[in-house]
Amino acid sequence: MDSIKAALNASADLKRQVADTLAEDIHNAIEQVRRSFESGGKLLLMGNGGSAADAQHLAAEFIGRYKLERNPVPAIALTVDASILTCIGNDYSFDDVFARQVKGLARKEDTVLAISTSGNSGNVIRAVEEAKKIGAATIGFLGKGGGKLKDMVDIPIVVPSADTARIQEVHITIGHILCETLDREF
Question: Is 116 annotated as a binding residue?
Fold first, then answer.
């Protein structure tokens, strides 16, 4: 019982810390995604492992709905097409699985959301580099100090933790805040 309470309290404490220190960065990310949607752009999301699941989850909330009935909002998880991922991984390299998709799909009015608990995922870094070449805005949901991505993305949101599970819990919470805020507007 004590370990359950400790885990829940650790998660809650980290979220309180994020509320106190990252609310402005989260607001800036929401504003950037809003600008993309208002200008006819889309949101491209990516990550590996649990972060891939978060990318898919958030894209589904925008295309489907979060809480309110509304028209779909253009969001694409770059983690879902097994044929594209295995083709690029085989014919190029795993480091290119997101970069090739960004190069083919992203436009300057889009926002690319890079989710990486370490901030050092090679395939996510390459995709952000491609997004920068195109002129698309970039946001990072990061942790563990932010890694290389912290200095690469336009809006880094670095969860102040080294615990992957706690970082992912905060990332999906921030994602839900993004969805909830934009849900009311679109």
Answer: yes
The whole-model pTM stands at: 0.96
User: Residue 164 is encoded by which pair of tokens?
Assistant: 């992957």
Residue 121 annotated as lining a ligand binding site? yes
Instruction: Report whether pLDDT(11) > 90.
Output: yes
- Exposed, middle or buried, 173 (CB in 10 Å: 0-12/13-18/19+)? middle
Question: Was 57 annotated as part of a binding site?
Answer: yes
List the chain domain ranges.
Answer: 2-185
**Residue 113 gets which letter from DSSP?**
E
9 is in an annotated binding site: no
> Rounded to 10 degrees, what is the CA torsion of 150, 145, 34, 41?
40
pLDDT digits (tens, 9 = 90+) for 138-184: 999 999 999 999 999 999 999 999 999 999 999 999 999 999 999 88
CATH no. of 2-185? 3.40.50.10490
Q: Does 96 carry a binding-site annotation?
A: no
